[in-house]
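Narrative of accomplishments. A recurring question from our advisory board has been how the design workflow behaves on a single, concrete structure rather than in aggregate. To address it, we present the structure tokens for one chain from the evaluation set, followed by the sequence designed for it. No filtering or post-editing was applied between the two.
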């Protein structure tokens, strides 16, 4: 596999593909823009009435390193401070309103598969 596995975020009956960001995969290093630099119209949001979401990877990682978020009020301000999000297994709590989430995962280093990857998505949870 030449790139990290895809990630879908599921909330209720809705699934949304996350955008692959910066990653280190085998001998490849790929840099991406900051999640808050992405134009809002290029990152459609997952709209949900639920207050939790689950991470569904194409291949489960060895570790979910971190999940953080920023209010969409900070869109375009990549100096805004992120808020850490606790993850229980593959589930995490959503905050009411619009938030940009960044998920960092790690797969064990193997000769043909492994490394770390960041993913991001926009979630609009019911207030």
């Amino acid at each position: 596999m030449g790139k990290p596995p895809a990630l879908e975020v599921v909330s209720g009956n809705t699934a949304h593909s996350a955008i692959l960001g910066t990653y280190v995969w085998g001998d490849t290093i790929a840099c991406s823009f900051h999640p808050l630099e992405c134009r809002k119209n290029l990152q459609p949001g997952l709209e949900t009435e639920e207050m939790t979401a689950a991470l569904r990877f194409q291949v489960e990682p060895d570790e979910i390193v971190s999940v953080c978020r920023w209010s969409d009020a900070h869109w375009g301000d990549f100096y805004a401070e992120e808020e850490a999000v606790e993850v229980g297994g593959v589930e995490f709590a959503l905050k009411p309103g619009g938030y940009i989430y960044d998920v960092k995962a790690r797969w064990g280093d193997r000769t043909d598969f492994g490394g770390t990857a960041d993913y991001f998505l926009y979630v609009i949870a019911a207030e």
